[in-house]
Amino acid sequence: MKTLPSSIFAIVVVLLGVGLMLLIGQPRLFFSRWSFTKSVQVTVPGEDRGYYYRFKAGYLYKGEPLDFDIVVGCRVKITTYKDNDRTVEVGVVPAIFGLKTRDQHGVAVLLPDGCNGETTQNGKVPKALLPLVVTYERADEPWSGVAYASEDAYDSPRSELKFLGATITRATREEWQAWRETEAKRNFITYELLGINPKNMWDAPKWKPGLRVMATQCFGISRLKLSDAVRDVVTPGWPSSKPAYWFADKRTQEPLWDIAMGPNKPPLIEGNRFQDYFPGVSPGHNGLARREPGAVIFFNRQVEGDVYPAHTDLSINRLEPSGELPAEMNAKERLDYSAAEIKPELRGFAFCDSSIVSIDGAPQWPPKYLYRNANRINGEAISEQLAKWGTNYFFAFERDEYIIFLRMYELASSFAKL
Asked: Is residue 1 part of a domain?
C-alpha cells in the first residue's frame, strides 16, 4: 500500500472573532507551485523596503557553547523568470539556521520575525523571548527531530540544551551582505536536505524510492485545566459514553465562544483569556509563548500551558524505501494525523517527523486512510462521536477537566529562504 507525504495535508483555519479554530479534514498544499516560473534568484537586496536585524541566542549543548549570531534580511527581493520578469518580496532571510555540534548532531533555530523595527533595546522584543529550537540526531540526516516547544523543555531531565537568552538589534544591508559572505555557510541546512530544488524553487521535487527530507513540521498538544465557568459549559456536552478524550459539537462550542468572545472577554483558563492560547501565526515565528504573557513579539498577550509531543504517521520519512507502508502502520484501521503522549518527562517538547514540502509523484494513501481524522492521546483515540464527518477540530476535551489544543510548528516557508 502506498501513501502521500504529510505535506499535502494541513489545517484549514477558521477565524472566530480573534480566536482560531482549525479544521484538518481537507488537504491542501503547503508548498505552492507556480507553473509560470523558470528560476529564482535574490536580486538587489536592501532596495525599496529592505530591513535588517541581528539575532543572537546563546545555548549550551551538552555543556558545549553554541552561539547563534545571524543577520536577517526582511523583504528581500526575489525575481522570477519565464517570459517576463516578475519581482516579489519575501519575509525573513534566512528563516531557519542550523549549527552542527561536535558530535555531529544538528541544532536549528527558527528566526523570530523582527521585520517591523522590533528590537530588544526599544522594548518591542521581550526580554523573555524564547526562540523555537529543534535538535536532530544527525545534522546530515535530519529526518526527525525534537522541538523545544516551551520553557518546560529546558528544565526536563531529557534536555540536551540550556538556554542562555536571545536578543534582536538593528543591522544594516552591509552587515547582512558581509554575514552572508562569511557566516551563512555554517548553516548545515540546505535546500537539498529540505527536499527543494535549489535551481528552481518553484518546482516541486520528484518522488524517488527511499527519498527522505528534513523534518520541518512538528506536532504537539497544549493541555490546560478548565475553569469552573468553562466546565459548566462543557460538562453538558460530554457524550453519554463518557470517553476520556472527545471532540465537541456546535452545541458545546457555540456557548463557549459566546463567553470567550463576548464583550467582557473574561479570563477563562488558568487566569488568561481563551483567545490568548491561540497563536496569531504558526507557533514560534514570533517566538514561543510562555506561561506568563509578554514573551512573544507583537502578540504580547499570548500564553502557553503544558505542552506535550505528538508523532504523525503522515510522513514520507516513515515509508519503506520502496514507498510501502511499514507493517505496523499498514495494520492500523486509520493512520494518525497526530498521536500525543502526555508524560511528565516529555513536557515541553514536540516531535518533528514530517516535512512541509510537496513531492511530485509520491505514493498515494490507500482508500481506507483518506479520511484520517483519528488523533490519539496516550494511545486512545479522541472520540469523534460528536464531530462532523471527515473533520477534526483544533481543540478537544479530556473528560470535563482539561481542554487540549493541537499545536503544529512549521520551520520553513514556501521559499525556505536560506
From this structure: no
